[in-house]
UniProtKB/TrEMBL annotation:
Protein name, as recorded: Uncharacterized protein
Species of the source: Devosia sediminis
Domain of life the protein comes from: Bacteria
Origin organism lineage: Bacteria, Pseudomonadati, Pseudomonadota, Alphaproteobacteria, Hyphomicrobiales
Length: 52
């Protein structure tokens, strides 16, 4: 569950605490900006299809 989620035409931006990270985010299968306690994650449309 993300604290903030912004849907765009090409995917979704999510801001969430580190402890809520999914497997694909922890292993950097999707684009992640690590801010310490928070993660800013970009899930592209292709990523959403690949990691449901």
């Amino acid at each position: 569950m993300a604290w903030l989620s912004v849907k765009t035409s090409k995917g979704i931006w999510k801001v969430k605490p580190r402890w809520q990270a999914r497997w694909a985010e922890r292993t950097r299968q999707v684009r992640v900006i690590d801010l310490g306690l928070l993660l800013v994650v970009w899930w592209s449309s292709d990523d959403i299809k690949r990691f449901p």
